[in-house]
Design goal:
Layout: E1 16-18, H1 25-32, E2 36-38, H2 42-45, H3 50-71, E3 76-79, H4 82-88, E4 99-104, H5 116-126, E5 131-134, H6 137-145, E6 153-155, H7 169-176, E7 184-189, H8 198-207, E8 213-218, H9 223-235, E9 242-246, H10 251-255, E10 260-263, H11 272-279, E11 284-287, H12 292-295, E12 302-305, H13 310-322, H14 324-341, H15 344-360
Parallel strand pairs: 1-2, 3-4, 4-5, 5-6, 7-8, 7-10, 8-9, 10-11, 11-12
Length: 362
């Protein structure tokens, strides 16, 4: 949203972001770029009693949402996340002739834990939408399997901005991180969540520990999970070659100093991390889940391996380490592919086309 909304044509679209939780950093960045953000008043955000806080937030949000729809004469409401979709779709019928759009940006993990009634309710909501957007074929197929009308499902891939590498930038970044020039720099950009496959990657790196490499793990998450991974790296005797950088605002900068990008997820929708790695000219090793194979062409822009397979991951890493010419070729191909198919401009065009098409049927 932060990449797309500020870039939409303001002469055609008057945008308001409605939050029913407290403001965060993304909210501030939206405001800085001229996007109106409506969020709960501070006295509700700061309530210390969880149950009272939740009740008051939803009550405030429900009333404010209905008032906003009518007062601003909203034409299209776009439900970006599952919670807003389930809670606010019924409330949106308070405005006559409103068009509704829903996005799903990942595979529906919650459906595996949902009761039959919640699952049925979500299937019902799909039929109330005027358009449903998915960010990969994998997500689109899942939506259709859930009962979403296929004619309403539209794929809009994520997009990234082009970010050319300046002369000496790679050397300078490696110097900042104190990485020897003759060591390959591997990188995974993913929050520290078990299904992101960090443990598989550490096992894979253990199998190639005799090679000259360093691994950067970029991403925030639960401190316990980080401690578990750090202990695992120590147990596998690779801790001196693994660096945990935490959540970083300069990911694109870091990627430009790396040699191989990795995504080891057990499940995925369509990952921006893959596109960002490709944009930095990295050959990507990714698992064959979700929309990963839609971004990466095996053997041409990267290597696709089975999920939950440290052995396959290790073999792919070893292959790219031992074949520098192939590694460079894959990275160059990846950079060309992301420019052609996954640019931020294409993504913005997709959303503008969707909104205009829905509005014309108003």
């Amino acid at each position: 949203m932060l990449r797309v909304l500020p870039s939409l044509d303001r002469e055609k679209f008057n945008i308001t972001v409605f939050c029913f939780a407290k403001d965060g950093e993304l909210s501030n960045q939206m405001k800085e770029q001229g996007i109106k953000v409506v969020s709960p008043p501070l006295f509700i955000q700061d309530l210390q009693k969880p149950l009272l806080s939740k009740a008051m937030k939803f009550t405030w949000a429900a009333v404010k949402f209905i008032i906003l729809l009518r007062k601003m004469k909203i034409d299209i409401v776009h439900f970006f996340l599952p919670t807003s979709y389930k809670l606010f779709t019924p409330l949106s019928f308070s405005r006559f002739n409103l068009k509704r759009v829903m996005s799903r940006r990942g595979l529906n993990r919650s459906s595996k834990k949902s009761t039959l009634s919640i699952y049925s309710y979500e299937r019902y909501l799909h039929h109330l939408m005027d358009r449903i957007s998915a960010n990969s074929n994998a997500v689109a197929k899942e939506l259709i399997n859930e009962g979403a009308p296929s004619e309403l499902v539209q794929i809009i891939y994520n997009g990234v901005k082009e970010s050319p590498i300046a002369i000496n930038q790679r050397r300078d970044i490696r110097s900042e991180l104190n990485i020897p020039e003759d060591h390959l720099l591997l990188v995974i950009v993913a929050n520290l969540i078990p299904y992101k496959g960090h443990k598989d990657l550490l096992f894979a790196c253990h199998k190639i520990q005799s090679k000259k490499w360093h691994l950067l793990i970029v991403g925030g998450g639960n401190q316990n999970e980080r401690s578990n991974l750090e202990n695992m790296a120590t147990y596998l005797k690779i801790s001196t070659k693994v660096r945990f950088l935490g959540s970083r605002p300069d990911v694109s900068h870091i990627l430009k100093g790396c040699d191989i990008g990795i995504l080891a997820s057990h499940e995925e929708g369509f990952s921006n991390a893959i596109l960002e790695g490709m944009s930095a000219g990295l050959p990507m090793i990714v698992t064959d889940v979700g929309g990963n194979s839609e971004a990466i062409t095996h053997g041409t822009t990267g290597v696709i391996v089975p999920p939950n397979s440290p052995e396959s991951m290790a073999a792919a890493l070893n292959y790219l380490i031992e074949n520098p010419n192939k590694r460079i070729q894959l990275g160059q191909n990846a950079e060309r592919r992301v420019k052609k198919y996954f640019s931020i401009d294409k993504c913005i065009e997709g959303y503008e086309s969707l909104y205009l098409d829905v509005f014309r049927k108003h």
